[in-house]
Amino acid sequence: MGSIGIWQIVIIAVVIVLLFGRGKISDLMGDVAKGINSFKKGLKEEPASEGEKKDDDAKVIDHKPADVMSSQKTAEKSEK
């Protein structure tokens, strides 16, 4: 009485198909498969070496302060 038989599984599957439609279910299963494949691919990738990690983590922002830029613009305008 506690176990689920094959007929109960078939009835549940038929009800799910009737409620959601075959197209929605196939789209959902396709998305699940893509997610699983992406997860497996991520596991297979080799971790980056320590040197590569440091290069990726370090972000250099190359900019000049506003007062330096404004003084350069005024110098350029005076040269013209």
Walk me through this protein's architecture.
The chain is mostly helical and 80 residues long. The chain is 75% helix and 0% strand. It is built from four helices and no strands. It has helices at 6-20, 22-44, 50-57, 66-79. The longest helix has 23 residues, at 22-44. The radius of gyration is 30 Å and the shape is elongated. The protein starts with 5 loop residues before the first helix and ends with a helix. The relative contact order is 0.05.
What do the pLDDT scores average to? 76
Gross morphology: elongated
Element pattern in H and E: HHHH
* Percentage of residues in strands: under 5%
Low-confidence stretches: none
Q: What characterizes the major β-sheet? A: none
Number of alpha- plus pi-helical segments: 4
Distance between the termini: 94 Å
Please specify the SSE layout and strand pairing:
Blueprint: H1 6-20, H2 22-44, H3 50-57, H4 66-79
